[in-house]
Structures are given as C-alpha cells and as structure tokens.
Amino acid sequence: MLGISNELGNITYSEEVIAKIVGLSTMECYGIVGMVSKSATDGFWELMRVENLGKGVKISFKDEKLVIELFVMVEYGTKISVIANNVIQKVRYNVENHTGLKVSAVTVNVQAVRV
C-alpha cells in the first residue's frame, strides 16, 4: 500500500488504483495504441483491454516517491520521443493531482509498433 499522512490522518492507495490512473492517463495521449503486458513471453506482446491497463504498469516506492514504469505500443509513423515525453508529463501530472503522491520518475518502454 502506498500512501500519505498528515495531521488529519492517513490515506493509502493500492497499487492497482495507481496503475489504473497511469494506464488511463497514458491512453489519453496521441500516438499510443495501448498498454502491453510487462511479462510477455516468447516475444509476443499482449495488448491490454481497458479493464486490465494496470498490467502494463510497474510501480515502486523509493524515498517516499513513486517510480513508475510503463509498457506501451505506439502507432507507426509517429515520433516516439514526443509521444514518450507527452506520456511522462501527463502521467506525472495526473498521479500527483489525483493522489497527492509525488512522482520521482516515469519510464516509458516502447515494446511494439502497430503498422
């Protein structure tokens, strides 16, 4: 459980909630086809449906800040560096805005390109 504490009490979030926020934020970005499974085997990447977007997200907590790693498929013909920067900015903003948790790093792993 990840959370914050203040003089009024404690708020805790499950990793699934944060992963869902990250997944939905990522899907709002131009050029993203979808989230892919972070544990794909045999070189096949499974595109995640909306209810399973969290499977394309890995979250860890370091020095009281979130470290987010996500796995995506992008559209062919788009500039990957621009897409990745947009995803990083949007994910950081949405997670910090919705939860109050601080994000120290967002890593975008482009696992596939849809032609």
Description:
InterPro entries: Asp23 (IPR005531). This is Alkaline-shock protein. It holds the Pfam family Asp23. It comes from Clostridium polyendosporum. Belongs to the asp23 family. The protein has 115 residues and is an alpha+beta fold. It has a single domain, classed as Cation efflux protein, cytoplasmic domain (Alpha-Beta Plaits, 2-Layer Sandwich), CATH 3.30.70.1350. Helices cover 29% and strands 37% of the residues. It has 2 helices and 6 strands; from the N terminus they run ββαβββαβ. It has helices at residues 15-27, 80-99; strands spanning 2-6, 9-13, 32-35, 57-62, 65-75, 103-114. Strands 3, 4, 5 and 6 form a 4-stranded mixed beta sheet that branches. A two-stranded antiparallel sheet has the order 1-2. It is elongated, with a radius of gyration of 14 Å. It starts with a strand and ends with a strand. The mean pLDDT is 86.
